[in-house]
């Protein structure tokens, strides 16, 4: 192996990549439990299809556009690595093989468009959604990943490397990017039938809790793995992730109790995700005490933000905007307050003697990614909507998108009903045949 290669670091990042991959099925469960029964499968596969589409595009040109040598001004990579050509087994990124780094970053690219899907649950054509993923990662995610993650000693991405925006693991490139894209698609597709009128409650809170737990588990790879080495920075990123997430659960639940009078399981699961989102950009630059503050603020703020859709009239089905756009922005901005200058980066936040300089840089990063993502996502959504159509018909939406788009249903209630009818004895005064008709018709 070449000089500088570390087997320990390589193993650590490979395991982290596997953990991040698990987050996409975890997200599918989280979203799948939050929708109504008739949309369950569609919600699951909207996340799952990202694993297939983005992987192929990443190999063909995505890695090259994101992490190839800069093509100019820190905006996008060149095409040196089309088809992953030109990458040798002994080529290193730091102490790990380039291929290890590439597969780790691939998992980020996969989950980012999957996050968007929750904003348009119940009403998007599956084929149109698949096309949107392919277009969106090409013109939005791959360039933004280059802006934020590509470092080349001052000649890398224009946000992270050239202007000093701190985003350790993707608060801007992943969460603000996806959350704002979700807002754009909400506006393109319009409101669900029955929005503000029908309750539209989650059909399976156990699935939501399972998905939240898998996301929490996988997020350790997401954040700690971004150190790209098994070192002290990775350890600090991991413990900060745990601390902020725990604090956010508390922050969300306290807000929920004060506002609505109850501690809900949905609130606990959502609070955990809000904390994970907010600590993502900050986990490599803040202290454990800073992580508590970030988690508490994000939990309460995101709990409050999910009501914005009712105030402004956009139908963000599963609160992608309130959790990911707002949570990502909070975490990114709070780096400018809580960065210690002693963890992974040397830049200091306002509370540690750094003045307003880093806060200004963080605000620039948040604004740049939000504006670019919203505008391009809206244009892509409109183009698809005006050509092949992005939204299912009203009849399909009311009847259930699972049957129309996938010819399947998540739960076989007919089989359960038949079993109950056979097991139930005939009521007094009725024949067995009459009782069977009564049960089946109930």
From TrEMBL:
Signal peptide residues are: none
SUPFAM superfamilies, A to Z: Ammonium transporter
Q: Which InterPro entries match?
A: Ammonium/urea_transptr, Ammonium_transpt, Ammonium_transpt_CS, NH4_transpt_AmtB-like_dom
Annotated membrane-spanning segments are 12-31, 43-61, 96-116, 128-149, 169-190, 202-222, 234-255, 262-282, 288-308, 320-343, 363-381
**What protein name is recorded for this chain?**
Ammonium transporter
Q: Name one GO cellular component term.
A: plasma membrane
What the protein does comes down to: Involved in the uptake of ammonium/ammonia (NH(4)(+)/NH(3)).
Its ancestry begins with: Bacteria, Bacillati, Actinomycetota, Actinomycetes, Kitasatosporales
Q: Which residues form the Ammonium transporter AmtB-like domain?
A: 11-411
The molecular function GO annotations come to: ammonium channel activity
Annotated localization = Cell membrane
Question: Which stretches of sequence are listed as region Disordered?
Answer: 421-442
Please classify the protein's predominant subcellular localization into one broad category: membrane
Q: Which family does this protein fall into?
A: Belongs to the ammonia transporter channel (TC 1.A.11.2) family.
Species assigned in the record = Kitasatospora indigofera
The yes or no answer to whether the keyword Transport is present is yes
Q: Which UniProt keywords apply?
A: Ammonia transport, Cell membrane, Membrane, Transmembrane, Transmembrane helix, Transport
Keyword Transmembrane helix, does the record have it?
yes
**Per the record, where are the segments of Basic and acidic residues compositional bias?**
430-442
């Amino acid at each position: 192996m070449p000089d500088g290669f570390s087997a320990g670091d390589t193993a650590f990042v490979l395991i982290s990549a596997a953990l991040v991959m698990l987050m996409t099925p975890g997200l599918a469960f989280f979203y799948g439990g939050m929708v109504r029964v008739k949309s369950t499968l569609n919600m699951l596969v909207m996340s799952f299809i990202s694993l297939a589409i983005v992987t192929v595009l990443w190999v063909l040109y995505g890695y090259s556009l994101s992490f190839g040598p800069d093509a100019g001004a820190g905006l996008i990579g060149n095409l040196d690595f089309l088809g992953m050509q030109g990458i040798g087994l002994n080529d290193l990124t730091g102490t790990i093989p380039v291929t290890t780094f590439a597969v780790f970053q691939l998992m980020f690219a996969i989950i980012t468009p999957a996050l968007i899907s929750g904003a348009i649950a119940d009403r998007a054509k599956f084929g149109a959604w698949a096309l949107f993923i392919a277009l969106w990662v090409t013109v939005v995610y791959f360039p933004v990943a280059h802006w934020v993650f590509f470092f080349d000693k001052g000649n890398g991405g224009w946000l992270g490397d050239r202007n000093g925006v701190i985003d350790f693991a993707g608060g801007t490139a992943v969460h603000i990017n996806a959350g704002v894209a979700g807002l754009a698609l909400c506006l393109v597709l319009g409101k669900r039938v029955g929005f503000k009128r029908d309750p539209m409650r989650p059909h399976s809170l156990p699935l939501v809790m399972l998905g939240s737990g898998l996301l929490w588990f996988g997020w350790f790879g997401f954040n700690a793995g971004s150190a790209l080495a098994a070192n002290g920075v990775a350890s600090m990123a991991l413990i900060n992730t745990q601390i902020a997430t725990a604090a956010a659960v508390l922050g969300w639940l306290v807000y929920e109790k004060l506002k609505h009078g109850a501690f809900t399981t949905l609130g606990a699961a959502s609070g955990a995700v809000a904390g994970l989102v907010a600590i993502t950009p900050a986990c490599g630059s803040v202290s454990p005490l800073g992580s508590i503050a970030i988690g508490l603020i994000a939990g309460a703020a995101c709990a409050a933000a999910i009501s914005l859709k009712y105030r402004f009239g956009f139908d963000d089905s599963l609160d992608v905007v309130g959790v990911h756009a707002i949570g990502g922005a909070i975490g990114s901005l709070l780096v400018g307050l809580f960065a210690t200058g002693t963890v992974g980066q040397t830049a200091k936040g306002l509370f540690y003697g750094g003045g307003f300089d880093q806060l200004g840089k963080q605000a620039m990063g948040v604004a740049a990614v939000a504006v670019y993502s919203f505008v391009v996502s809206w244009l892509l959504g409109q183009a698809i909507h005006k050509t092949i159509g992005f939204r299912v018909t009203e009849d399909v939406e009311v009847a259930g998108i699972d049957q129309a788009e996938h010819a399947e249903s998540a739960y076989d209630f007919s089989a359960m009903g038949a079993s109950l009818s056979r097991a139930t004895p005939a009521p007094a005064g009725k024949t067995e045949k009459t009782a069977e008709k009564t049960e089946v018709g109930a």
